[in-house]
């Protein structure tokens, strides 16, 4: 097949070059040959494009349900969200502290089966925006399940979205929000040049009557238009890059709208309505797309570049389209977001296809303090240990040694609560809860630049949760080692009062602690659970299984002996611990 394409390309070059030469030197009828050459080039191009599309589809089919390992630029990925969250209606979304505490950038990487930057941005925004309407969640779920059942349609859409790609060095959101700011030369200049360029079409007739003048006219037009073309390309390089990206977006929208389907999976009405208003832009910049493709290696004879310079097709199309983009930027933003939402929903369908098991949550506004999860697990673990928890009308206090599984379980609860209220899926066999405003205080660190101590950072993090409680929406509050940055007496006293306060403020608290004193101080309003480990003379073994009641182990001191600490330290530490326990 490659040999046939090579012969066609060679024939195309001969027809173009030979036709122009013979047309000028022998007979004007030979000018027909370049048109035949162009037809051959278009045919070869279409054959090559079809091969590329076929290869892309095969790759997409192989990758369906598989994690995409790639380098992600979260500054670009969250760019759309930074604009969306400015709206006052987004006050109860996942805040930055909670997002970071739950390692959601890494979780996003697991779910990110998208094909485009707009898909990444919309998926990120979807995961940050909590829904409190089960009807809306079920609609989203229906779309995702629809793509899972119609995988061929989903992959067909992905093959078009794939062409948009993930170009992080173009802030397309900014251009869609603000428009394209470029100093434009008077458009009349280009219309005058277009009129002059028409003379090129008449050049065979002019040459027939005045051979020398016709040749000089063509040379003059090529020189003038060439300077304008080169100057415009150099001066507007950034704008042209954005423009090319916009072209990909519009072509993608056009192709997706024209896919034939037997059953509607995703409502394309918003995309179709917005695209109908910007179709003029698409039709206009298709010229630029064709000429840019030619200048990037698809035009071995340079004929397309020659025509581009001679008629200034790309330059005139560029300026006309800028005016249209600025005029219809709202509609273009709608097209951009609708494509992103399509990409995000298909990505979630692919992700769900990879899961061992999952369920749809039962969300009940009338059960603010009831939580049930059967065999719930963490999405980032390769071989996760599942756990079950059912609680009603009380909070949860977790105890256990370091590395026993407390923090992982806290994050498992938080991440799945976000999943439940964003794409109506939970990594468990059964899940029942209320709708939650999800807030955490887990991974606090010293703020060296801001001058805050560990305790001060933690206190501020916890204060934001306290300020959010007491409303109509129950707060799911996930805490790890409250006030660990201060002394034991003050830590236990303050933690006790905070836990009691939160329990009375429409707040479902799941907290972990090393302070065993707390298990007794709040036992009237919190149920105790723990994780434990087994320590023998050779090893420490964790089973990561949640168990009822407070931790009773003294394994922390046993681990010192396992690590080879002096026996004197072990014996005296164990005796001191036993003495404290009897007080």
* Helix proportion range: 55-70%
Overall mean pLDDT score? 82
The first-level CATH class name of the domain at 362-552: Alpha Beta
Low-confidence stretches: 446-451
Rg for CA atoms: 33 Å
| Molecular shape | elongated
The largest sheet, given as strand count, sense and whether it forms a barrel, is: 6 strands, mixed
The CATH superfamily title of the domain at 362-552? P-loop containing nucleotide triphosphate hydrolases
How are the strands of the biggest sheet laid out side by side? Answer: 6-7-8-4-9-12
Quote the beta fraction.
5-15%
Walkthrough of the structure:
There is one protein chain. This protein is of the alpha/beta class and 583 residues long. Among the domains are: 63 residues; 99 residues, no CATH class; 191 residues, Rossmann fold. Helices cover 60% and strands 10% of the residues. The chain has 24 helices and twelve strands. The strands form three sheets. Strands 6-7-8-4-9-12 form a six-stranded mixed β-sheet, sandwiched between helices. Strands 1-5-2-3 form a four-stranded mixed β-sheet, with helices on one face. Helix 20 links the parallel strand 6 and strand 7. Helix 13 packs across helix 16. 36% of the residues are buried. About 1% of the residues have low confidence.
Q: Any key phrases for this structure?
A:
alpha/beta; 583 residues; 10% strand; Rossmann fold; single chain; 24 helices; six-stranded mixed sheet; four-stranded mixed sheet
């Amino acid at each position: 097949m490659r040999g046939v394409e090579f012969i066609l390309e060679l024939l195309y070059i001969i027809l173009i070059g030979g036709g122009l030469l013979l047309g000028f030197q022998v007979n004007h009828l030979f000018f027909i040959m370049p048109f035949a050459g162009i037809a051959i080039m278009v045919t070869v191009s279409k054959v090559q494009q079809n091969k590329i599309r076929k290869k892309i589809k095969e790759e997409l089919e192989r990758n369906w349900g598989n994690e995409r390992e790639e380098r992600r630029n979260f500054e670009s990925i969250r760019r759309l969200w930074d604009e969306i969250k400015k709206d006052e209606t987004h006050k109860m979304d996942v805040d930055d502290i909670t997002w970071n505490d739950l390692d959601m950038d890494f979780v996003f990487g697991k779910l990110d089966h998208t094909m485009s930057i707009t898909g990444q941005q919309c998926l990120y925004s979807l995961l940050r925006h909590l829904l409190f309407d089960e009807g809306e969640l079920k609609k989203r779920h229906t779309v995702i399940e629809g793509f899972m059942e119609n995988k061929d349609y989903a992959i067909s859409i992905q093959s078009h979205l794939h062409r948009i790609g993930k170009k992080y060095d173009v802030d397309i959101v900014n251009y869609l929000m603000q428009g394209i700011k470029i100093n434009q030369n008077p458009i009349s200049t280009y219309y005058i040049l277009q009129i002059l360029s028409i003379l090129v079409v008449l050049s065979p007739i002019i040459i027939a009557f005045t051979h020398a003048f016709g040749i000089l006219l063509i040379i003059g037009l090529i020189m003038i238009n060439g300077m304008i073309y080169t100057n415009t390309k150099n001066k507007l390089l950034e704008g042209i890059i954005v423009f090319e990206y916009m072209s990909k977006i519009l072509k993608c929208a056009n192709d997706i709208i024209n896919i034939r389907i037997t059953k509607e999976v995703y409502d394309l009405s918003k995309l179709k309505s917005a695209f109908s208003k910007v179709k003029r832009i698409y039709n206009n910049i298709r010229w630029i797309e064709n000429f840019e493709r030619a200048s990037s290696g698809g035009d071995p004879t340079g004929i397309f570049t020659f025509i581009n310079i001679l008629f200034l097709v790309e330059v005139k199309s560029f300026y006309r389209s800028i005016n249209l983009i600025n005029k219809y930027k709202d509609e273009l933003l709608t097209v951009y977001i609708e494509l992103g939402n399509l990409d995000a929903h298909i990505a979630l369908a692919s992700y769900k296809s990879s899961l061992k098991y999952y369920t749809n949550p039962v969300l009940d506004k009338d059960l603010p303090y009831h939580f049930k999860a059967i065999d719930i697990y963490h999405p980032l673990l390769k071989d996760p240990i599942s756990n079950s928890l059912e609680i009603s009308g009380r909070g949860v206090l977790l105890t256990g040694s370091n590395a026993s599984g407390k923090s992982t379980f806290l994050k498992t609860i938080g991440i799945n609560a976000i999943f439940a209220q964003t794409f109506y899926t939970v990594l468990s066999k059964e899940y029942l809860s209320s709708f939650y405003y999800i807030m955490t205080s887990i991974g606090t660190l010293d703020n060296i630049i801001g001058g805050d101590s560990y305790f001060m950072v933690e206190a501020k993090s916890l204060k934001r949760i306290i300020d959010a409680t007491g409303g109509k929406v129950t707060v799911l509050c996930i805490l790890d080692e409250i006030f660990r940055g201060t002394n034991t007496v003050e830590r236990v006293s303050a933690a006790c009062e905070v836990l009691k306060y939160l329990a009375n403020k429409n707040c479902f608290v799941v907290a972990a602690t090393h302070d065993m004193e707390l298990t007794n101080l709040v036992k009237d309003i919190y149920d105790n659970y723990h994780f434990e480990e087994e320590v023998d003379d050779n090893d420490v073994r964790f089973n990561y299984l949640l168990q009822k009641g407070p931790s009773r182990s003294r394994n922390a001191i046993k681990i010192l002996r396992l690590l080879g600490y002096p026996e004197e330290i072990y014996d005296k530490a164990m005796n001191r611990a036993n003495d404290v326990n009897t007080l």
